[in-house]
Every structure is written in structure tokens, then in C-alpha cells.
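In this supplementary section we document a worked example of the pipeline. Step one takes a protein sequence of length 163 as its only input; no multiple sequence alignment statistics are reported here. Step two produces a three-dimensional model, which step three serialises into C-alpha cells for compact storage. The input and output of this example are shown verbatim.
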Amino acid sequence: MKASGKVIKYGHNVDTDVIIPARYLNTSDPKELASHCMEDIDADFSKKVNQGDIMVALNNFGCGSSREHAPIAIKESGISCVIANTFARIFYRNAINIGLPILECRQAAEEINEGDYVTVDFLTGDIFNETQNKKYVAKPFPPFMQEIIENNGLIGYIKKTLK
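The serialised model returned by step three reads:
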């Protein structure tokens, strides 16, 4: 499984309140959530994101409230992967549960720039910055987590397993 796209980059401590502001939590519609994704930190996010783009951030991405709405909004916006130095643990788990691939890689998170074009191989953990011609390696997911992501999240995985 691979992803390729243009990078949209953020800094440290991007919390779930800026990923999807609380005022929009009265809906569970993924398209509506995506239309407000990141708007409190990046008002133009929904206009500039394209299907397959990759989000990069620094430390503690997804900190704050344990809302599953945050990774849903990111995924539905078109982001194919989030790379960060570290993730808040509850965000990490919620992302896997809904099938949003995320990778931790300090060097990649620090060196990749906004607008760079990046390719990610989830099976190997390889991250290739095509703009800078640099390769980074993140720890790949274990096979069972890769299956969850490939099946669009935990519910899809369970449905497939029960067939």
C-alpha cells in the first residue's frame, strides 16, 4: 500500500480542537467535518487540499480531546497519510480505527517542507521526498494494523473477517 502527494505542513501540538473545532461536532457527516478541517489554524486548508495530499507535523499531533471526528475530518478531506514526529496516543488509536494511515518519523517530520512531493510505502515504512531527493524510514505497521487500514478501518476489517 502506497500514498503519494503534495505536503501540507503544520508545527507542534496541533490539537483536535483545531483539527475539527468543537462547534462542528454536532454532525457526524464526514463531508461536513472535512469542510471545516483545520479551519482554525489554516483557513484555506479545505480549498488547497487535494485528494492524496500528505499532512506533515512535528511533535504531539492530535493532542487534546479524544474525538474520533478529528481523524475522520482529515481522512475525508483527501489526506492520504499523516507523518509526524509524535502523535497523541488517543489520536493514534482513533486514526487506525478509522483507517487513516499515520507514521512517526522525526527526521522526515523536521525536514519535509510545505509543498514538497512525498511518496510513502506503508509496507516498508519508506518515506521518499521526491522534491528534496531524500529517503526516510519510519517503523511500518504490523500486518494486522495494515489490514485494518486497507479495509478502511476497524469496522471494515471486522466485516471482512466475519464473511
